[in-house]
Amino acid sequence: MTDSRYLKRTINKEEIDSTFLGEKRNLRVYLPPGYNEVLSYPVIYCQDGEEFFNYGRIATLANQLILDEDFEPFIIVGIEVDVKVRSSEYTPSGSRNEDYVSCVIEEIIPFVERNYPVRRHAQDRILAGDSLGGSISLQLALKRPDLFSKIISLSGAFYSGIQHMVAAEDDLSSLSLYMIVGLQERDYETDSGVYDFVDLNRKTRDLLLKRGAQIKYDEKDGKHLWGFWQKELGAALTYFLT
């Protein structure tokens, strides 16, 4: 049974007006136990924010880590996305990709930093994403290494577009990734085709390693589902927050 203390969570719902996307975008902001505006906190920005909170149970997990495992308190920002336009925002060749990247960098991060006491150094920002969310997280870090240096990738959908971006880089020694992929993801069907996610992740890992990135990489029994990823979130957070 889940300890009731883990369920007493403070989650603010925010809404920003995005000039780049031409629409409103919802955020969920988790505040840690003992939150105090005079302090400063590391921050995790989650793509597919609604799923990280609902299926990944990341707020409950954060409470557990902070209350029982003596983690330094941290803030989580879940960036919500409409599944109808998700691929066009998260894929490098997508029609909304450039605008989404600009929205995160120019609108969402400044909004969070105006309204919450998050730290403003690359080493104190973590990007997290599952599937295409892992790909867009890596794209953001490649575009702005001054802002982002840490990525949690859960079965990243590292198709050719993002692999080409990595290959074009010379030095990624400032970048650190936690990568996990399920061994039952070798023939996963997506809306753009059937892919071997194990192969995609191995190739992307190797490209990153050749350019000096620090990689924590693992393959485990698991499918392309939150039932697999949720169990791996604790280890991913531990890797970057301890």
Automatic annotation (TrEMBL):
Gene3D superfamilies registered for this protein in UniProt: alpha/beta hydrolase
Chain segments annotated as coiled-coil in the UniProt record: none
Domain of life of the organism encoding this protein: Bacteria
Pfam families: Esterase (PF00756)
Cited InterPro entries: AB_hydrolase_fold (IPR029058), Esterase-like (IPR000801), Mycobacterial_A85_antigen (IPR050583)
Protein name as annotated: Enterochelin esterase-like enzyme
